[in-house]
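Course assignment 3, question 2. Fill in each field.
Student: A.L.
Task: Predict the tertiary structure for the chain below.
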Amino acid sequence: MRANRVDVITMGCSKNLVDSELLMKQLDANGFECVHDSDNPEGDIVVVNTCGFIADAKMESIETILRLAEAKKEGRIKRLYVMGCLSQRNRPELEKEIPEVDKYYGKFDYKQLLVDLGKAEIPSCSGMRLITTPPHYAYLKISEGCDRHCAYCAIPVITGRHVSRPQEDILQEVRRLVAQGVHEFQVIAQELTYYGVDIDGQRQIAQLISRMADIPGVEWIRLHYAYPAQFPYDLLEVMREKPNVCRYLDIALQHVSDHVLQDMRRHFTRQQTVDLIRTLRERVPGIHIRTTLMVGYPGETDEDFEELLEFVKWARFERMGAFAYSEEEDTYSAAHFPDNVPEEVKMERLDRLMALQQQISEEIEAEKIGKTLKVVVDRLEGDYYVARSEFSSPEVDPEVLISAGEGTLQVGRFYEALVYDATEFDVYASVLNKEAHT
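Answer field:
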């Protein structure tokens, strides 16, 4: 057992990861040795940052806590703490069911852990993070919470109302991270396009991204988790005009059937969805759209699902994820709609939808053959350097594979690469300029 070591394990989304990094910076500044997502958690302290979004994520968090509680019983770790969304939502039940945990914290009071460890928050490190991603990119959280009340979603129950960070705080963080060697920013929020409304009633996301793009050293900005209703179209002008704002937008659409969208309380229609996608593609030529869709929502008929399939064939999303509906406590859906689509039907629909998307993805990636892409190298893995273009977010999107036999490349540097082959998941490319550039 290693004294003074803290193993932090992050479950769930990149927004949770930012919280872990904030905590780790404070722990590091207080003299602790911090390790993130260790394969073999051990030592004085283990902290689990949990996810509470959907059933599978909650179960994974619970299984992790139980595994570590057993390790504590066996003496392999000394103290176990739990924080994050699941703990925020279900603290009383967790305290009763898994009492081996020394203390539970929610999503917003986790810095109390410092006090409980006999330490204190260090003001000079406020807002600073111990980056756990590869050092050339970072996630940038610009707000917390959500004012939407989609029928199936428990996020507002967990996070509360939307709160935007002040622009100057965000820009200061970007400058600080650039000075540390970060050149690529994944901008994240529960609802990115709502940014600023709670400050002065105006959507300020276009202004924020434009100001970020003007900071020297910012090479790429990628936008995640937009909402379709009241979409701020001035953001598209920034994407088109600023070369370091990636032609990439992550916007969850969930469904396209009007009656399903109405039951979901999405406040958006099929026609509005079609119009939005057309506008995105017209105003930002070459844009890659990532979306998330849901199957098996209560009341979804075979006709609704076939409509969704036809929509996906038309939209040809460059990136798409999907999941089956699971009932979440304290949501409008759980209170008002019986979960009446059989599980086997949900899974069959999910399989068909993802098979269609795999075919579309294969065709779209094949269209890149013969094209030159600007790529950043993330790592060396086996016989290949693994890189990404502006059209791919880390860990979730297709990658660019460059043979290590071509010569030594620098991780975290940008190159021009010519694509010569493709699969539905990755493209293969050769570097045109062996000299890295930023």
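Instructor remarks: The chain has a mean pLDDT of 92. The chain has 14 helices and 18 strands.
Grade: pending
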